[in-house]
Fold:
Amino acid sequence: MKGKISYLMFALLAMSSYIITFAQKTDSTLIAGHFGGAVSLTNNGISLIPNLTLGKPAVIFDMSVGKRKLSFEPQLRFACEGKPWTFIFWWRYKLLENERFRIIIGTHPALAFKTESFTADGNPKKLTIVRRYLAGEFYPSYNLTKSINTGIYYLYAFCLENDAIKNTNFLALRVNFSHIGLSGNYFLRFNPQIYFLKMDEMKGYYFTSAITLVRKNFPLTVSSMMSLPFNTFIHADKDFVWNVSVVYSFNKEYIERKILSM
Structure:
């Protein structure tokens, strides 16, 4: 129990590391910013790299806070029994953005938790192992229409420990259909991608897609993701991976009062 509480305290401290303070009324300029987040409950936790899974139900906390081009976007993932899975602390920057074209770069430190069983003095024991990662991303994308977007996403991750895969390269071709109209106030989001994954010397090619049912002006959505390989030499517990998630999300804009020196 103490271990779970310490993990939670660490998570809360990390998520509160970026705090926006409003100044009192005075001579100021107004700068728009945003604060948003989501809580997801899923029957099978799927990683940022879709062929890697927790293999059991999970709850995921996402947050995004920032202004102008820079944002801090931590993601905290837990198994439903409360054990930590992964903590990812993204910093993202919009290098370029206009009506058609956008380039986002990002970096993060991450912690991945794994429970291993062993025997000591004839008694079964469990030990939580933490592996540390440093990663960076590059994501140029292009708006074909108001609701269709395509892009190339690249992620590189380096593990600081020597008892795990050291170098991970992830390259994906993505297409995002953000508004497929249904009857009434409902619509779908559809996000297929083909990706190449290299983990040290192991390589694989995969297809994955996500579909989300959305109701206008309603905070709850239902989504499903699936991933399967079509040519891979990377070992996995299951070739075909899928899940169903219920997501509660919110997004707010704010005005920060920036005090001007006299």
Summary: The chain has one domain: 2-259. Residues 1-28 have pLDDT under 50 and may be disordered. The helical segments are 2-15.
